Amino acid sequence: TSDKTVLYSVATTLVNCTNSYDVKEVIPELVQLAKFSKQHVPEEHPKDKKDFIDIRVKRLLKAGVTSALACMVKADSAILTDQTKELLARVFLALCDNPKDRGTIVAQGGGKALIPLALEGTDVGKVKAAHALAKIAAVSNPDIAFPGERVYEVVRPLVSLLDTQRDGLQNYEALLGLTNLSGRSDKLRQKIFKERALPDIENYMFENHDQLRQAATECMCNMVVNKEVQERFLADGNDRLKLIVLLCGEDDDKLQNAAAGALAMLTATHKKLCLKMTQVTTQWLEILQRLCLHDRLSVQHRGLVIAYNLLAADAELAKKLVESELLEILTVVGKQEPDEKKAAVVQTARECLIKCMDYGFIKPVS
């Protein structure tokens, strides 16, 4: 309907149904104090609890609320005020809460409808819409959720969520979304780089919070495929490579997997980085040996690829590796009978040994 007031009323009703307004945090001590001084304390209605909200959200989605919201977003700008946009963004965020529902939202045009809400409107509205976009981008195939050129418009809202002023969940889901996008194409990686997301991603790689650090490292693992990102690692006077090498030595499997992936990619593309890796920290050899002996096959494979890159980069460096315990590790791994799961690992170890034979450092047993 073209009636300005109706649109706002419908949006407000949907916000009420999904309980997506800001709820003030209640401090129990203050509640006790208020009761003690006989002040009125508003109590939460039993049907405002999460279980009831989830049931209402399911019903709304079944009734096709996403299509209705998409229709409202397209309304004439005179009718669709910034306030109404904020309300619509709040509803979208509440609908995206459950990952299982996100496919339905994408199918009904939710991904497309969220982009204008994330780019213009009130600050609160833009953040809510960007967060909903991040939730969708984290679990959906970007080609389906944001077809065509539209996917490039998603990058800026996601990068805006990396701001340290935003809360941890927003940072985390934005990183997951960017990881998904950066794995699609170099054009997207270029766009993420141009939106100056790299310093923020690096910032979260230093984070104490395990999941944030892992998400940032996974994102960087995809980003290092880009030439301009590699140049930042090649530049002198920064600790980027050192950080990646040290993250390979952490105890968390997923974090090691992402960091080793990034290091394998970097050492494969630039010989200079192979030499630089041995200078950034005294622990590099110990960390490399740990990777090559890792229980998790994907981490072990990445470790062996790094070892191969170092062997192939420089004869002096290869000699240093052969004189260490790494040769024994490569021999043990290379002698294994390759089954289906271990084929890539054993093959890479054998390629490392062949490289050592080419240099004449070791001889085949007659």
What distinguishing features does this structure have?
single chain, 366 residues, mainly alpha, Leucine-rich Repeat Variant, 0% strand
> Approximately how much beta-strand content do the residues carry?
under 5%
Which CATH top level class of one domain fits? Mainly Alpha
CATH topology of one domain: the name is Leucine-rich Repeat Variant
Q: Would you list the SSEs in sequence order as H and E? A: HHHHHHHHHHHHHHHHHHHHHHH
> Quick check: average pLDDT?
91
Largest sheet: none
InterPro entries: ARM-like, ARM-type_fold
Main location: cytoplasm
Keywords: Cytoplasm
GO cellular component, one term: cytoplasm
Notes on the protein architecture:
There is one protein chain. With 366 residues, the protein is mainly alpha-helical. Among the domains are: 1-115; 240-365, Leucine-rich Repeat Variant. Helix content is 70%, strand content 0%. It is built from 23 helices and no strands. The protein has helices spanning 4-18, 28-36, 50-62, 65-73, 82-95, 102-107, 110-119, 123-139, 142-145, 151-160, 168-182, 186-194, 198-205, 210-223, 227-234, 240-248, 253-269, 271-280, 284-292, 297-313, 315-322, 326-334, 343-359. α13 crosses α14 (210-223) and α16 (240-248) crosses α17. It starts with a helix and ends in a 7-residue tail after the last helix. The model has no long low-confidence stretch (mean pLDDT 91). One of its GO terms (cellular component) is cytoplasm. InterPro entries: ARM-like, ARM-type_fold. Keywords: Cytoplasm.
